[in-house]
Amino acid sequence: MNEYLVNLHMHTIYSDGHATHAEIAQAALRAGLDAVIITDHNVWVQGPEGYYEDGKRRVLLLIGEEVHDQTRKPQKNHLLVFGTQRAMGPLAKNPQQLIDSVRAAGGLAFIAHPLDPAAPAFGEDDLSWVNWEVHGYTGIELWNAMSEFKSLLSGKLAAIYYAFTPAAMAHGPFPEVLQRWDKLLNRGKRVVAIGGSDAHALIGRLGPLRRTLFPYEFHFRAINTHILTPEPLSGDLAEDRRAVLEALRAGHAFIGYDLPAPTRGFRFTARGLGKMAWMGDEISTDGGVTLQIRLPQKAECRLLKDGQVIQTWEDRETCTHITSQPGVYRVEIYLPFLGKRRGWIFSNPIYLR
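Given the sequence above, the corresponding structure tokens read:
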């Protein structure tokens, strides 16, 4: 499998971001990304998709959309839409109709920032997803950088601290979102997890202080979604768009917090009866299954089955677990950074049936 580093969920000057598509592509090139997916609010911008180059480096820029009912106060039910190749904003009022229409168009639908707490000190509303009775969506944004930032805004001093010390911000997905994901998986649903930056490069002002809150390049070096594709990207826009979307659809992906240390090279696989399964795949337990975990460097590794930790390894680069028990298996990796234990890698599940 070929690994590609993707940053998704971001905004341009076409909605509430502060950069053009070309400027975002340049920031992605500087950060070493392979692809970005731009998701402006309720607008699908036709034209900027394609490869952007700088010397021998290139980055694939794809266009999606963040769809939500703008007439609803406060805002709820934001949906990330990829691959429809047309605007889906007019369907925002009915989340189920929107999801159904995205699927009919061959696209992917991810519930954005499932938990997005209010920050009353700054007039920010709670933007969490509330319509959990919907079905047919591809997955959820398990870790959203800006939602986590909002959760830390207890007052002006906290805002100043994180504005000037952004590396101290990320700790991991909200426990409530991890629990929600596990419950969905335990009900037999295939729910793909992604990590989103929700990058805007917002301009923060507090008295005489003025600062860009988390420039795009900072986001691109932090919470990313790594995808695995059976064939290398070719340089052809249509083919490579399809490859990226199919990897996300299948759950051949993991979330990596690349700021403390690069997460490229992480692997979680299962072997049994002559078959190998990757994240997102299903494999039979007949004859037993060997789960194998490979880390880019030594760290704390936790293996979960049906949402419960069944084994923990400390200071390891490779971990192995043999089982014949059916269930939903996934991996969480933690390491110390800036004096705290922080989430580093969150895999998609392998389904043992």
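The domain at 2-257 is CATH 3.20.20.140 (TIM Barrel). Try to locate this feature in the token string yourself.
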